[in-house]
Specification:
By secondary structure, the chain is mainly alpha-helical. It is built from 4 helices and no strands. The two termini are about 20 Å apart. About 20% of the residues are buried. It comes from Nannocystis bainbridge.
Length: about 140
């Protein structure tokens, strides 16, 4: 996997690790560490979503009605994940992370990643997308 698909896939792996770190720190009552990881975690997810929304989804949606529908679904999932993150962020501020909020976020993110991994990333690979979103130039 190369280019944009690799970057986005690697983001998902990093999100899983950061989320595990958050849960471990919270379970240990290490709220300073939770706050430090949380700030980067939110920034990274927002940047990831923004990149997809601006650089990946519009071109993918132009492939046809099924692709537009998938982009609509993925965009709705972005909103749902951000809402779950907001709820979890409040719980973090109160030092009261609740298991249902964590489980919801994990389920949302994994479902979202699976759709992207099976539909968007293979297309990016076939298109040979570089980090800037531009297609690979033919020789």
């Amino acid at each position: 996997m190369a280019g944009v698909a690799r970057r986005l896939h690697d983001d998902h792996v990093a999100f899983d690790q950061e989320f595990d770190d958050l849960c471990n720190f919270a379970n240990a009552g290490a709220w300073g560490e939770v706050d430090a990881v949380w700030t980067g975690f939110i920034r990274d997810i927002e940047n990831h979503f923004r990149f997809e929304q601006e650089q990946v989804f519009p071109e993918f949606a132009r492939r046809g009605p099924e692709c537009r529908e998938m982009v609509d679904t993925l965009s709705a999932q972005h909103a749902e994940i951000l809402q779950a993150l907001e709820s979890l962020g409040l719980q973090i501020q109160l030092h009261e992370i609740r298991a249902p909020a964590i489980e919801l976020l994990v389920e949302l993110m994994r479902r979202h990643a699976e759709v992207e991994n099976t539909n968007i990333y293979p297309w990016l690979e076939r298109e040979g997308r570089h980090e800037d979103g531009a297609p690979r130039k033919s020789a």
